[in-house]
Fold this sequence. Notes:
Layout: H1 16-25, E1 30-31, H2 32-42, H3 51-63, E2 67-73, E3 79-85, H4 87-111
Antiparallel strand pairs: 1-3, 2-3
Helix pairs in contact: 1-2, 1-4
Amino acid sequence: MSTRTPKDRLSLLQGTLDVLILRTLLFGPQHGQGIARSIQETSKDELLVEHGALYPALQRLEAQDWIVAEWGASENNRKARFYRLTKAGRKQLVTETSRWRRLAAAIGHVLGPEEM
């Protein structure tokens, strides 16, 4: 459990959530709550994905045919939609990952080295 308060967490830049969802689904199908939990855990509790942002993003990715959803049972036996990455989604993930790495490097150049 994190000791960070919600205001201490980092806000996601527009478009970031899509690539994080695609990356999470690279490791296998997941339901919405599992995707949000995985992003939070992988980011060491820095990123908290709100339901109000997650489900519209999942719908947007599904409309782009980058993910598909199927009904199934969650680990607590509740009905849930499980999302899976498509071939087009894998290709988009490669494109977006490259873009984000270039952007992060460019911002790093502008900010300069960390002060010691």
